[in-house]
Write a structure and sequence with these properties.
Length: about 130
Amino acid sequence: MNTEITTEDIERQYLSDEAAAEFDRIVGRHEKRLRRKRLSLWAGGIAAAMIFVVVFKPMISNETPIDPVMVAEGITGLMNIDSDRIESIVAKPKGSKAIVTAYLKNGETRSYIMTTDDSGWMTLTAVNINQ
């Protein structure tokens, strides 16, 4: 049994066209896997960014909170309109708006949404006329 390796055997094993084709096939598979990994990571990153925007965008608000002075002016305005019938008024700020509820002496309530625009005008919108 001849176990001696000759130069021709080494050249045939490592430098032949078949060996070069096998090397290219192995390296080509590795490059394809790397491309798939990169594409998967890229797609996963975009999906994570989209989920982040969908989940956390409502929490990040660029609304300016309603000014407490404007709320007080709205309450004063309501009191001036019908002070004989109003027992109390409660305002609850909600972001750039406030929910204003007037409690009347006869037990009824009137609710309004108070908003302000960029120029400082205040608007009271009736939500329910009688409750």
